[in-house]
Design goal:
Elements (H helix, E strand, L loop, with lengths): L16 H19 L7 H18 L5 H30 L6 H26 L6 H17 L5 H16 L7 H23 L3
Helix pairs in contact: 2-3, 2-7, 4-5, 5-6, 5-7, 6-7
C-alpha cells in the first residue's frame, strides 16, 4: 500500500533581480528629482502678481497715449518682479530651502535672460514705432523664461510658461488696441490660475 505524502504549500515566486533593481532605480530617480528641483516658486505670490496685473490692466485701458500706456505696464512689471522675489524668499525661508542652492541658481539663470532680452527689445520696438508687437513679445519671452526656469522646478511651472507663450504668439499678430486685454489675460489671469494651483499643491 502506497504511503500518503503531505501536500507542501506552494512557495511564493521570488522577486526577480531585474524587478528589484528597477524599483530601486525608480526610487533613486524620484529622490534625485525632488532634491534637484527648486520648489520655492511662490503660489500665493503668483496670485498677488495676478491681482496687480489686473489692476494695471484697468489703469492701462484708460490711458490716452502710447507712452502713458507703456509707462503703466513698465511700473507694473517692476512691481511684479519685486513682489515675486519677496514671495519667493518668504516661501524658501518657510521651507528652509536656500536661495543659493544649485536648483535655485539654475532656475534663476534660466529665467533671467529672456526677461533681459524682453527689456532690450521693448526699447528697440518702441524706437522703431512697433509698439503693437510689445505685448506679444513680453508674453512670449516671459513664457520662455518660465519654461526654461521651470525645468528645474515643479512640473506645473513649465506648463504655465507654455500657456504664456501661446497667448503671446496670438497677441504678436494683433493690434496694440488688443494688447491690454492679452496682457491682462496672461499676467493677470494665468498668474491667478496657476498661482492657486501651485499654492495648493506645493505648499503656498
Amino acid at each position: 500500500m502506497a504511503s500518503v505524502q503531505p501536500i507542501r504549500a506552494a512557495r511564493p515566486e521570488p522577486v526577480s533581480l531585474h524587478t528589484h533593481a528597477m524599483d530601486n532605480l525608480k526610487f533613486i530617480r524620484d529622490t534625485m528629482e525632488r532634491a534637484g528641483s527648486f520648489t520655492a516658486v511662490p503660489g500665493w505670490g503668483g496670485v498677488a502678481m495676478g491681482v496687480s496685473a489686473l489692476l494695471a490692466t484697468l489703469i492701462a485701458s484708460r490711458q490716452s497715449s502710447t507712452e502713458s500706456w507703456l509707462t503703466t505696464w513698465l511700473f507694473e512689471g517692476a512691481f511684479a518682479i519685486a513682489l515675486g522675489a519677496l514671495a519667493m524668499m518668504r516661501k524658501a525661508s518657510r521651507a528652509k530651502v536656500p536661495l543659493l542652492s544649485a536648483p535655485a541658481r539654475k532656475f534663476l539663470l534660466s529665467f533671467a535672460p529672456p526677461l533681459m532680452v524682453g527689456a532690450l527689445l521693448t526699447l528697440v520696438l518702441y524706437r522703431a514705432g512697433l509698439t503693437g508687437a510689445i505685448p506679444g513679445t513680453w508674453l512670449l519671452l516671459y513664457g520662455t523664461g518660465v519654461v526654461t526656469g521651470g525645468t528645474f522646478s515643479v512640473r506645473i511651472v513649465p506648463v504655465m510658461g507654455l500657456c504664456f507663450m501661446l497667448i503671446g504668439a496670438v497677441a504678436l499678430f494683433c493690434p496694440l488696441a488688443w494688447g491690454t486685454a492679452f496682457l491682462g489675460a496672461g499676467f493677470g489671469g494665468l498668474h491667478l490660475i496657476f498661482g492657486i494651483i501651485i499654492a495648493r499643491r506645493y505648499g503656498g
